């Protein structure tokens, strides 16, 4: 049996064909599989996407992202980039083109969204990472990425409760969070 390093796992991941309805990501050499999201999750993503003006921004759901110097190909719930930077084709969107990534927390993605992806997106120098959490009914906006690899992090963190306006200065807008749904009866977690 041959050992596979993180870069070898990337090649294996590219050839993987997941079953229908399964979301698959490569996070620091680990293949993570999740069931398709539910209605609350999808409605939050749609609500955010609808509030970001299409004339200025490309808003793509479940787009594979290439993180420089990482054995990672995350698939954020939403990526936002300037319309004039969107490539004509391709599976992997280079992280250098992105202005913001958005993840909606699910019961099974808490650790990945708050810890693993936070570090990965910061390592990719993505200017803003927005975590929308229907378990805790709040938004976590992370900006000012710094560092490399697993030590990378965002230097600024702002927490806004669902129902309060969320200023997204990087996009030149204020996000209305009044319609964001929550997961009732789910045990609270300890993040961020």
TrEMBL record:
Pfam families cross-referenced by the UniProt entry: Uma2 (PF05685)
Alphabetic keyword roster: Endonuclease, Hydrolase, Nuclease
Transmembrane segments: none
Gene3D superfamilies the UniProt entry points to: tt1808, chain A (3.90.1570.10)
Top-level taxon of origin: Bacteria
Putative restriction endonuclease domain sequence ranges: 13-176
UniProt GO molecular function: endonuclease activity
Name the UniProt record assigns to this protein: Uma2 family endonuclease
């Amino acid at each position: 049996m041959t050992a596979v390093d993180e870069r070898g796992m990337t090649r294996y991941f590219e050839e993987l064909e997941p079953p229908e309805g399964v979301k698959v990501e490569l996070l620091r050499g680990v293949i993570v599989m999740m069931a398709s999201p539910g209605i609350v999750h999808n409605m939050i993503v749609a609500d955010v996407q609808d509030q970001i003006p299409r004339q200025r921004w490309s808003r793509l759901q479940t787009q594979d992202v290439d993180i420089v110097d990482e054995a990672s190909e995350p698939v954020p719930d939403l990526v936002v980039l300037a319309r004039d930077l969107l490539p004509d084709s391709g599976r992997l969107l280079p992280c250098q083109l992105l202005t913001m990534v958005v993840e909606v927390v699910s019961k099974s993605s808490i650790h990945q969204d708050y810890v693993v992806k936070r570090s990965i997106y910061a390592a990719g120098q993505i200017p803003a990472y927005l975590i929308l959490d229907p378990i805790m009914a709040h938004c976590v906006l992370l900006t000012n990425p710094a560092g490399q690899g697993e030590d990378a992090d965002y230097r600024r963190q702002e927490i806004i409760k669902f129902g309060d306006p969320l200023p997204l200065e990087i996009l030149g807008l204020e996000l209305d969070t009044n319609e964001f749904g929550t997961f009732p009866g789910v045990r609270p977690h300890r993040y961020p």
